[in-house]
Design brief:
about 200 residues, about 10% strand, binds manganese (II) ion
């Protein structure tokens, strides 16, 4: 079977984000959950060699071009692959805690203060019912927006550019935080790689 999509390399070890994200959660999340999204995406594309040539961004931003019989599989597993790839990248054990100047000024312009942005993002993450994600995106009109999405639906399919994302599926926090999603969300602010977020913002 062709395997056009592969698990990306992690830029830190499983225990690097402790105590905020524990090593066991990290290992299972990356080697089991993310790997399964990739395996299922490859399986969905098995009989579509022309789609295997495309990037994950191309697939997800042109869902109407995906044959209907595999479209939902691409949304679920392709979204799972894209979202998790972004998630690993925008975290770091050496977080600067605050965005760099250019992004920070855009955040302040849009949300009036960094604290208020943090509140809005955390609220989106807390109030997402069931499984999903909270995002900071650059919208089609080039403005910053906080959004949330269900399941593995990706903002990229809505024409938005996600620059920061938080996985709020229970598998992302349950081993360490059990039902306390809010504590996990609060911990996330200690491990954001703002240099990487800024890179995506400027791209
Ligand atoms: Mn996940």
């Amino acid at each position: 079977m062709a395997e056009p999509f592969k698990l990306p390399t992690l830029k830190y070890s499983y225990d690097a984000l402790e105590p905020y994200i524990d090593a066991k959660t990290m290992e299972i999340h990356y080697t089991k959950h993310h790997a399964a999204y990739i395996a299922n995406l490859n399986k969905a594309l098995e009989n579509f060699p022309q789609l295997q040539e495309k990037t994950i961004e191309e697939l997800l931003s042109n869902l109407e071009s995906i044959p209907t019989e595999i479209r939902q599989a691409v949304i679920n597993h392709g979204g799972g692959h894209y979202n998790h790839s972004l998630f690993w990248e925008i975290m770091s054990p050496t977080s600067t805690k605050l965005p760099t100047e250019k992004l920070l000024s855009e955040i302040v312009k849009t949300f009036t203060s960094f604290e208020n942005f943090k509140f809005e993002f955390s609220k989106a993450a807390t109030s997402r019912f069931g499984s999903g994600w909270a995002w900071l995106v650059v919208d089609k009109d080039s403005t910053l927006k906080v959004v949330s999405s269900a399941n593995q639906d990706s903002p990229i399919s809505q024409g938005q550019k996600p620059i920061l994302g938080l996985d709020v599926w229970e598998h992302a926090y349950y081993l360490n935080y059990q039902n306390k999603r809010a504590d996990y969300i609060e911990a996330f602010w200690n491990i954001i790689d703002w240099v990487e977020v800024e890179k995506r913002f400027q791209s």
